Each structure stands twice: as structure tokens, then as C-alpha cells.
């Protein structure tokens, strides 16, 4: 924009110096039907143009640097997203393994409870068996007493057979 302003100013400056029937310093024509109008803008110096060009170059360099940084950040973001996806997958797999282990522990806990109940039942049955055996032995002793005739009764039976 500054360069365009400077060009307009130079044209207006040259047009202001035109004289009728004198050759134009730009095109050499002696007729000047539409000379440029004087521009009412502040004059643009070469130094201002150079400074503006330097600032444009700096801005272009900053733009390139920012674009490079953006590309690097996009790459880092892509890498981070991939790592997050991998971590999520690893977590899911680990969680599933833990769930299986917990289910296994629950199964083992159930089996352990069943085993404890069976041991209790076995102890109860063993106790009942011991009591039954003791009672059976006592009943056999009682049965032998009842079925074995006393000595006087035996003698009576022995004598009775002889008759």
C-alpha cells in the first residue's frame, strides 16, 4: 500500500511539473489531456518503504515459523492421540484380565465356601457315625444279654432236653 501511495505521489509530482506543449518526462508526449491529480496524502519516503518491506519480510518469516510450529504441534497431537488410544486399549485389556481374575477369585471363594461346608458336614457325619457306632455296640451288648439265657435258665433247658 505504501508503495502504491508513493507511486501515486511521484505521478502527481511529475504531473504538476508538466507544461503545455512540453514533452512529458515519462512518455514524451507534448499533449497532456488528463494529467494526474495531486494526491493529498503524506509523502512516503524510501526509508518508510524499506522499513515496511523489512516488516513484511519479518512477518513472512514469523508466519513461516508459526506454520512450522503448528505443523510440529499437529504432529505431536497426532502422536499423543495415538498414545492415548494405545493406553486406552492396554487399559481395556488389563481391565478385562482383572475382571477374569476377580471372577476366578469369586469362583474359588465359592468353591472354598462349598469345601468348608462339606468339611463341616463331614465332621457332623463322623460325629453321628461315632455316636451310632457307640449306640450299636451298646445295643449288641444289650442284645447278647437278652438273647443269652442266664445260667439257671440254661440248666433248665439242659435238663429239659434229657427228659
UniProtKB/TrEMBL annotation:
Coiled-coil regions, chain positions: 49-90
Record keywords: Coiled coil
Protein name: DNA repair ATPase
Native source organism of the sequence: Lacticaseibacillus paracasei subsp. paracasei Lpp41
Taxonomic lineage from the root: Bacteria, Bacillati, Bacillota, Bacilli, Lactobacillales
